[in-house]
Structure prediction request, 155 residues.
Amino acid sequence: MRDKFKGLCSRDGGCRKLYISRAGNLQAHVRRLLNEDEIIGLACKQGFEIVRCEELSFETQVTVFSEASVIVGAHGAGLTNLIFGQPTAKIVEMIGPRLDRDQRSLVSRKLAAALGQNFVRVIGKSDETAPVNMNHLPFETFTIEPVEFLAAIRG
Prediction:
């Protein structure tokens, strides 16, 4: 994939810090980071740009992610753009605790490892007694502790 779209990738390396938001996603009401506004505020104070992949063309996504030194996002499709990130990029995935225990949640970690990227996972908190929307673990809603988030993006 990287070779196929290398013409769209930045040749200058990456220095952008990207936070992938689901705020504009139609499924945000069933699958979301509950304290995303707070986490976005912290990310912006650390120099992150907010990216809403669904608002960007594929070509723009390839270019933007190829310019990233840090890519942060909740587990999901938007985070797969890490494949266009630099080999030196840091990837920070936020995920709910139930989904974290599921083997299907390893996609981002495996992609980052294959590309030589530094992968960090921040496991959130959720009400594990509450049913998951449509009994589908990727639809787990969760919160991320701000201190843990800051440690992950700084460390």
Remarks:
- The chain has one domain: 6-154.
- The chain is about 25% helix and 15% strand.
- Residues 6-154 form a domain with the Rossmann fold fold (CATH 3.40.50).
- Strands lie at 16-20, 49-51, 68-74, 90-95, 118-123.
